[in-house]
UniProtKB/TrEMBL annotation, chain A:
Keyword Mitochondrion: no
Entry-linked SUPFAM superfamilies: CoA-dependent acyltransferases, Peripheral subunit-binding domain of 2-oxo acid dehydrogenase complex, Single hybrid motif
Cofactor (UniProt): (R)-lipoate
Residue stretches making up the Peripheral subunit-binding (PSBD) domain: 132-169
Protein name: Branched-chain alpha-keto acid dehydrogenase subunit E2
GO cellular component, one term: cytoplasm
Biased composition (Acidic residues): 82-124
Residue ranges, compositional bias (Low complexity): 176-186, 211-221, 302-317
Residues covered by region (Disordered): 81-341
Keyword Acyltransferase listed: yes
Organism: Halorubrum saccharovorum DSM 1137
From TrEMBL, chain B:
Catalytic activity as recorded in UniProt: N(6)-[(R)-dihydrolipoyl]-L-lysyl-[protein] + NAD(+) = N(6)-[(R)-lipoyl]-L-lysyl-[protein] + NADH + H(+)
Name this protein carries in UniProt: Dihydrolipoyl dehydrogenase
Keyword Secreted: no
Cofactor requirement: FAD
Organism: Halorubrum saccharovorum DSM 1137
Misc. comment: The active site is a redox-active disulfide bond.
Annotated NCBIfam families: lipoamide_DH
């Protein structure tokens, strides 16, 4: 039964990576062709990734929350016959476990060998404080804020490599003192650990050789859980990674879950088991020695810190996690996906185009009347008529008169392109952030048509069902912050467009008419322009034209 | 908005377009910084216009003529006539191509070039006086500055460079005829390079040096080889004598007067006197004080390992910031300055800066000598390979000199090398790389080198240090 790998497809033009938000399937699940297997958030949309195969999910290669480049393998399927694939699964899994073990083993091998190279153990202080490290490693040390003189080199004569610097930097905050003095004083490691442990022992890092190892040879501590000691275990790569990081053997993790008749271990179970191991263990003097000897420079940091903590201070389960998150009420929110895209876009616009915002107000009695009149007609056609289509039409009238506001500056080509189309972007606030779907050819569409289209785009934007293409090709944008409240703002241009019109709320406000202050419905306007392309006077004239059309909606008929 | 209203502003202002300044400017621009480079004279600085490049051009030209006329043993009989004017014209062509290239590179990388003389107004402002009377000046506000104003030849009392027959290195590289008799004051590397050049061009060269040997910083066996060869070329040396004055001679030439410490006087008949007693930093007219920067007692601007002066946002690179006054050191400092300004973790953290002297034979050195290594607390081990055991050296007809490599006995780390001989300036690069990379003698010895090349001598010297040389007797 062939296993098919499936890569993250190109989910939208120009999208290079996406965040894998949710897996909709798990290993062992049956999927049909076109069934969605994952949700991926790209630049501006949440897309479902469909399977291209009928089959069973073999393995998930990325974790939820990972940023995945397009073209990376994310999942594999077993295709062909259905059902009883128990054996195959077991085999495949055993294979991958083996591969994992091998990789780790060779890494451990190399480390042990270089560290135990003859003639290098009693290293004298280098004269005049000189450190032997290539320029790249020295620079990295500065970048990571590491004093290179404090780094233990793994090369001949303790020459320092970039990997050594990294290992030091990562170990630095966990318990660098202990780590440093450990490697200075520890006797040269013997390669026997690797040999005697067989291929799987290489997977065991500190947890095994120190903690579990001692639990197996000496009498188990009272609370220490029994290692399950299975031959094979099913687990996702992510879970296996967790296990490696915590120094736990997946075969030892107790579980009741099965997949296709095989024991299945989750990341949760691995963590629980690792925690239980630690809390059950009594601090033993030899533990320090035993655990330090085979310590490779790239040894994972978390378990190391954990064990050191457990040895040195009160053995408190989970104390490491607690210390890293305790004492602060701040919350960290990832800056990626849509948020990051918006941020980048805003930054680019604001720092590229010198913005000027022009403010004015339209008195819209007539517009309010016109809409009231047309509303029932629209309803008959199943359309909810807002003011937006009127504004869009008024903008088109203004743009036709002042084409520089419907343009794009191409600095490299030293030209300003005056757009022939009137494609208006309408900013929509969504839970994930700002989206700007585009209504194309506004000049060719009727009010009702526009109303329906805006409504459709906005609701799909909120559901994050927009296609990337629907957010492209705008020539001018509108932001209706008044829908939420407020009068004036300083909108940021949807770069590379050159102008954006912000709409305040239509409300009755005091207006002076014939020497009297009266209440009248007004629409506050905030027009931001790219001053490189458009001068203030033109912006004001454009605003006048738009206002004229809003105040006299009959004029809209002429467009 | 009227653009003329805005005072010129720049993120990085670089003053001086020598190998320190133009490199800093290009890297800064590459880092995306808005960069302005001010040069008062010629792009490329001393190095390209009247230093490294012109001197190497004339050294090659004179060397070629001399070789051709002295190759009877290879069966070549020739008596080349040198047209000095033409040779200098060729040299100028080389210089023009290089300096034009510097200007193009700057522009292509988006560096704003301004011609004029810069001086500081305050910590964030400089004034640039444009060349020539009445050309006006402009103020430039900067966020960061890099001072790269270089150095100029030291003038000694009694010898005014304005005199026709008193040369600095600049004039020596621009002469259209070869003087019959050339007196050279100073046996440093510039004096020695030009002594060799002019001797090969047929001048009677007399070198007057206050110390008791040439090339002060080098080891005795290194100096001896170069001095002996110079003497073979007809250069006359007078050590322990300082030049005191010149006078006109009855024969239409001049007399170069010297004095020993004890007051003994001598005179030497010359047609030109080249004064090459060192170079001093150029900071006059810069108004460093306005920016809050002082110079040390030798006139250098002090900097830290990030090339920063006492005023953090102002950097100094190249000759103006002290020893070693070498073009490649200036360029490295320029890169570091630009990267530090751009916020990158760059620093002057190299283990060694190589140096070359283009005498006959050449000298190339990097890192520590045996004595220096000992002084630093190493237990040095040394390996040598004489060029007279190198097949390739024999086929070039130049077998003087040796490769010496110095390493730490304990660990084998390469610490330094001294090379005298053909192409020593090129050969030294390999050892520089070895030192930077933390390579050991074994690494160098076990690297396969092409045969037959001079570079094999580096490998052999490393083998020799390990007692495993094949082509020399191991010591
Ligand atoms: C004969 C000779 C041979 C040499 N041979 C070698 C060699 O083989 N190898 C080697 O490494 N080095 C050699 N050098 C040394 C080398 O030339 C210098 O180390 C190098 O040029 C220093 O570079 P720099 O950028 O610091 O300064 P410079 O090259 O001196 O450039 C400084 C520039 O700043 C300009 N400047 C000064 N003040 C101002 C101001 N106020 N405003 C605007 N511009 C200003 C100057 O006009 C000049 O162009 C030689 C020098 C000489 C004289």
């Amino acid at each position: 039964m062939p296993v098919k790998e499936f890569k993250l497809p190109d989910v939208g033009e120009g999208v290079a990576e996406g965040e894998l938000v949710t897996w909709l399937v798990a290993p062992g699940d049956r999927v049909e062709e076109d069934q969605p297997v994952a949700e991926v958030e790209t630049d501006k949309a949440l897309v479902e990734v469909p399977s291209s195969y009928d089959g069973t999910v073999e393995e998930l290669f990325v974790e939820e929350g990972d940023i995945v480049p397009v073209g990376d393998v994310i999942i594999s399927f077993r295709v062909g016959e259905d059902g009883e694939g128990g054996e195959a699964t077991a085999e495949a899994d055993a294979d991958s476990a083996e591969a994992d073990a091998d990789a780790t083993e060779s890494a451990a091998d190399a480390d042990t060998e270089s560290a135990s190279e003859p003639g290098t153990e009693p290293e004298p202080e280098t004269p005049s404080g000189r450190t032997f490290a290539p320029p790249s490693a020295r620079r990295l040390a500065r970048e990571l804020g590491v004093d290179i003189a404090a780094v233990d080199g793994s090369g001949p004569g303790d020459r320092i490599s970039e990997a050594d610097v990294r290992a030091h930097a990562e170990g630095g905050d966990g318990g660098s003192d202990t780590a440093d003095s450990g490697s200075d004083e520890a006797p040269a490691p013997t390669p026997t650990d690797v040999g005697s442990g067989g291929r799987k022992s290489a997977v065991k890092k500190r947890g095994d050789d120190g903690a579990t190892g001692s639990a197996a040879t000496t009498a188990p501590a009272p609370d220490a859980p029994e290692p399950a000691g299975r031959e094979t275990t099913l687990a996702t790569p992510a879970t296996r990674k967790v296990a490696r990081e915590l120094g736990v053997e997946v075969d030892d993790v107790p579980t009741d879950e099965t997949r296709d008749g095989e024991a299945f271990v989750t990341g949760e179970a691995v963590r629980a088991y690792a925690e239980a191991l630690e809390s059950g263990e009594s601090p033993e003097p030899e533990a320090t020695e035993a655990t330090e000897a085979p310590e490779a420079p790239e040894a994972p940091e978390a378990p190391e810190a954990a064990v050191v903590d457990a040895d040195a201070s009160a053995p408190e389960p989970g104390s490491v996690d607690a210390s890293s998150s305790a004492g602060s009420t701040d919350e960290t929110v990832p800056y990626r996906g849509v948020r990051r895209t918006i941020g980048k876009q805003m930054e680019r616009s604001k720092f590229t185009a010198p913005h000027v915002t022009h403010h004015d107000t339209a008195e819209v009695d007539a517009l309010v009347e016109a809409r009231e009149e047309l509303k029932p007609r629209a309803e008959e056609e199943g359309v909810k008529l807002t003011y937006m289509p009127f504004v869009m039409k008024a903008i088109v009238a203004g743009l036709k008169e002042y084409p520089s506001l419907n343009s794009e500056l191409r600095e490299d080509d030293e030209e300003i392109v005056l757009k022939g189309d009137y494609n208006l972007g309408v900013a929509v606030a969504t839970d994930a952030g700002l989206m700007v779907p585009v209504v194309e050819s506004v000049d060719e569409k009727g009010l009702f048509e526009l109303a329906a289209e805006v409504r459709d785009l906005a609701s799909r934007a909120r559901e994050r069902k927009l296609k990337p293409a629907e957010m492209k090709g705008g020539t001018f944008s509108i932001t209706n912050f008044g829908a939420i409240g407020g009068e004036y703002a300083t909108p940021i241009i949807n770069y590379p467009e050159t102008a954006i019109l912000g709409l305040g709320a239509i409300e009755e406000r005091p207006v002076a008419r014939d020497g009297e202050v009266v209440a009248a419905p007004t629409l506050p306007l905030s027009l931001s322009i790219d001053h490189r392309v458009i001068d203030g006077a033109v912006a004001a004239e454009f605003a006048n034209t738009v206002i004229e059309h809003l105040e006299h909606p009959l004029l809209l008929l002429s467009h | 908005m009227v653009v003329g209203d805005i005072a010129t502003g720049t993120e990085v202002l670089v003053i001086g377009a020598g190998p320190g300044g133009y490199v800093a400017a290009i890297r800064a621009a590459q880092e995306g910084l808005d960069t302005t480079l001010v040069e008062k004279d010629a792009y490329g600085g001393a190095c390209l216009n009247r230093g490294c490049i012109p001197s190497k051009a004339l050294i090659t030209g004179s060397g070629l003529a001399h070789e051709a006329g002295n190759a009877e043993s290879m069966g070549i009989h020739a008596d080349p006539a040198v047209d000095m004017g033409k040779m200098v014209e060729w040299k100028d062509g080389v210089v023009d191509r290089l300096t034009g290239g510097v200007e193009k590179l700057c522009k292509a990388n988006g560096v704003n070039l301004i011609e004029g003389t810069a001086s500081f107004v305050d910590e964030h402002t400089a004034r640039v006086a444009h060349g020539g009377e009445g050309q006006g000046s402009e103020s430039i506000e900067f966020e960061h500055a890099v001072v790269a104003t270089g150095s100029r030849p030291i003038q000694i009392p009694g010898f005014d460079f304005a005199e026709d027959h008193v040369w600095s290195s600049a004039e020596a590289l621009d002469a259209d005829t070869v003087p019959d008799r050339l007196g050279i004051v100073g046996g440093g590397y510039i004096g020695m390079e030009l002594a060799t050049t002019y001797a090969k061009l047929g001048a009677d060269v007399t070198v007057v040096e206050m110390l008791d040997d040439i090339l002060d910083p080098y080891e005795d066996d290194v100096k001896r080889i170069v001095r002996t060869r110079a003497e073979e070329l007809g250069v006359e040396f007078h050590f322990g004598e300082g030049a005191s004055e010149w006078s006109e001679a009855a024969d239409g030439g001049y007399l170069l007067h010297t004095e020993t410490e004890e007051g003994e006087e001598s005179t030497y008949g010359v047609d030109k006197v080249l004064v090459a007693v060192g170079r001093r930093p150029v900071t006059d007219g810069l108004d460093l004080g306005e920016a809050g920067i002082e110079t040390d007692d030798r006139g250098f601007i002090e900097t830290d390992d990030r090339t920063r002066t006492a005023v953090d946002h102002i950097h100094a690179v190249g000759d103006v910031s002290g020893e070693p006054m070498l073009a490649h050191a200036a360029s490295k400092e320029g890169i570091v300055a630009a990267e530090v300004i751009a916020g990158e973790p760059a620093a002057m953290d190299q283990q060694a800066i190589p140096a070359a002297v283009f005498t006959d034979p050449e000298i190339g050195t990097v890192g520590l000598t045996e004595a220096e290594a000992e002084a630093e607390g190493f237990d040095p081990v040394v390996g040598e390979m004489p060029f007279n055991a190198s097949g390739r050296a024999m086929t070039t007809g130049h077998t003087e000199g040796f490769v010496r490599i110095v390493a730490d006995d304990e660990t084998g780390f390469v610490l330094g090398a001294q090379i005298v001989g053909p192409e020593a300036s090129e050969l030294i690069a390999e050892v520089a790389l070895a030192i930077e990379m933390g390579a050991t003698l074994e690494d160098v010895a076990a690297t396969v080198h092409t045969h037959p090349t001079l570079a094999e001598a580096v490998m052999e010297a490393a083998e020799n240090a390990r007692g495993q040389a094949i082509h020399t007797l191991n010591r």
